[in-house]
Amino acid sequence: MKCIPAYVKYILLGVMVGLFIILSIFYTHSTLQLGVAMIFAILQSRINCPKCSNPILKDRNGWYIFTVRTTCRHCGQDTMLCEIEPDEVTQKRLQ
């Protein structure tokens, strides 16, 4: 089975959350869709970096933020990759 990178999952769930919120507010006026959006938001907050296992959605202070950067804020791992990078590769890219 093909691996889906953590960043791709994170962005897809973010788009789904936004879509369900917009649909429920402006078109269907359904609280059920808001509930589905909340479930997708919880799933999005649980996506972790493959290297350090910290959530992608949290910054260093523990706040939840939406980010478009593909590297982990904690360890520098490229989250577009499924496999864990060696520390030398990560440090070289961060310099």
Q: How would you portray this structure in words?
A:
It is a single chain. By secondary structure, the protein is mostly helical. Helices cover 48% and strands 0% of the residues. It is built from three helices and no strands. The protein has helices spanning 6-28, 31-45, 87-94. Helix 1 runs antiparallel to helix 2 (31-45). The longest helix is centred in the first third of the chain and has 23 residues, at 6-28. It is elongated. The relative contact order is 0.16.
Task: Indicate the radius of gyration in whole angstroms.
Answer: 15 Å
User: Can you count the beta strands?
Assistant: 0
Helix share of residues? Answer: 40-55%
Q: Specify the biggest β-sheet.
A: none
How much β-strand is present in the residues?
Answer: under 5%
- Output mean pLDDT: 85
SS content category: mainly alpha
Shape: elongated
Which sequence of SSEs, written as H and E, runs from N to C?
Answer: HHH
- Per DSSP, the total helix count is 3
State the distance separating the first and last CA atoms: 34 Å
Unreliable sequence segments: none
Brief overview:
The protein is mainly α and 95 residues long. Helices cover 48% and strands 0% of the residues.
Features:
mainly alpha, 95 residues
Give the arrangement of secondary structure elements:
Elements: H1 6-28, H2 31-45, H3 87-94
